[in-house]
Amino acid sequence: MQIQNSVGIEMVLLAPGSFTQGADNGNYETQPSHTVHLSSPFYMSSRLVTFGQYERFRPGFRKNLQTIRRLTNTDPRWVAEYEHAYQDDDPVVGVNWHEAVAFCKWLSAKEGQSYRLPSESEWEYAAQSEAAAKEQLHAFTGQIEQWCLDWYGPYPNGEQTDPAGYREGTTRITRGGSSWTPEGTHAVAGRMSFLPADRYPGLGFRVVVGAMPFRYIEHQPRPLCQSEVPQERYDWRAQQVESEEAIFLTPIDFVKIPDNSTGPLYSDHNHFPSVTWCPNGDLLVTWFTDLGKHATGEEGVKLNIAASRLRKGSQSWDAPSLFWSAADRNDHSSALWTHPETGLLYHFQGTGSYPNQGNQTLFMRTSDDNGANWSAPRIMSDVRSMWNPHIVTRTREGVLILSSDLNFDQPMWGRIIISHDDGHTWHAPAGKIHGQHPGIVQLADGALMAVGRDNWNTEHAAVPGSGVPISTSVDLGESWSYRREPALGHGIDWRQRPVLLRLKEGPILYIGFTDKSNTAKAQRLGIEIVDQAGERRRVYGMFSALSFDEGRTWSHHKLVTPSSDDREYDGGGNTDFFVANAEQSEPAGYLQALQTDDHMIHLLSSKLHYRFNYKWLQAATLAAPK
């Protein structure tokens, strides 16, 4: 049976019935398959809502879309996000979940019937139905992705009747995939999800009329990183380590994902850590986890954010758990930070509409209970771009600074986004930082100094010379000047990210690598150090240096190595296994560091957690064994 309403939407009647939802041979999101019973008939629109129909509710919507711009991930330059000349009969796109719900409410009042978005189960039931087979229902997969009513969450075990999904969540279900999404997302059982406040040119919706599904799952599964989190405040300063004692602790693994894990945590590829302290004495780390070489890796949609917690007093990290995921999106990447005055935790995240890291939305969340619970995601910029958040810092004047990548082509650039009100509003300055993955500090005169990595294959022609690229800004990132610093090694390449950190003792700490990651062993240049035996020699790999004059000169170069004898470590990520000794250390890794109020410095590479203090940085490198 088919009917047509006053705005021209044709509705097809679907009888009650049962079906198998999900797929056991699919991705983890579709498992387990289970029987679903729908006890009431409902009508579904034969096609997606069109621009002509939607503009009866919101006139001029297409014109508003044409004003939306995004940055390309190449030049970068501004382009139209919605570049097509959409016709009245084209499916409406660029509608967020809240706007789709508002349209349903408007249509309900107009028609005197209860219009709404389909539940996920209704959508899949209809897509499998005889009506779909007879083409009474159209365009389910591979054309325009479609909003559903439900919050995203893992399927429960067992049969369900009239399921409405979870009562709360962070992303809403979308179904069907689009020409923007990989072919694997086009399966009828395939599941995706998206921020409900976000929009993109491949996402629309269809409507149903029928009884509201009423069986909710009350709570999402709670990941280990958010479980049993004590709320007693810990006095970090009272635990300050003795400044006269050099301390270096054995590196420990923070990833610890079991072999052959295929989602939502993946054993194949893990790196890009971000670490912060919690007021209760814990450390919290996030990183991205993906299928690596078995899929499209960092550029694919099987890329989630994992987390682990080093609980107060513990010497080992918890088992990893899922921290953030928009299903089948490129969630690339995360940054954590803790407000030094309020103890509020911040989480910054890029999430993609297109299956790579170059077309992302940037959002943030906060936690006032040590990361046990998080606020709803809040979109920080209406510009879709290559938002890869890296490092968070705060100036003496209270300006919050988040560093990010800017583009994926060559030459590669970084940038910052800033807030003058602790994250309530944000501004992206126009200037570009030389190189991706920038670390950043504020200098004594108020200027910003950033260090980035070079291009994969070429150098920035505008910045000749050797050494790591240094960018300096005196106007909070609106413009930058560039130079190279040969005292900090021979450049940073892919598989590497440097650290730039203002220590509580005053100096600026740099941690990087002596040579680019793709340098053949015979061609490594290394850096020269004087070791504890007074011998002047060259070392290779990860090293530290200190500046006592705001980055003008660097001294105390030191190999970051745990032993003078050979010790093998698994560096994870793109680093793999390496041998550390008095001559060489970890050759690559995506580094991040913080110094807690007990004055311990925590350095994380792609898999390993190093711990040492300022006194250790001042001491000479271990002597080579005789």
TrEMBL record:
It holds the Pfam family FGE-sulfatase. Residues 281-564 form the Sialidase domain. It comes from the Bacteria. Transmembrane segments: none annotated. Residues 10-131 form the Sulfatase-modifying factor enzyme-like domain. InterPro entries: CTDL_fold, Sialidase, Sialidase_sf, Sulfatase_Mod_Factor_Kinase, SUMF_dom, SUMF_sf. GO terms for molecular function: formylglycine-generating oxidase activity. SUPFAM superfamilies: C-type lectin-like, Sialidases. This is SUMF1/EgtB/PvdO family nonheme iron enzyme. The lineage of its organism: Bacteria, Bacillati, Bacillota, Bacilli, Bacillales.
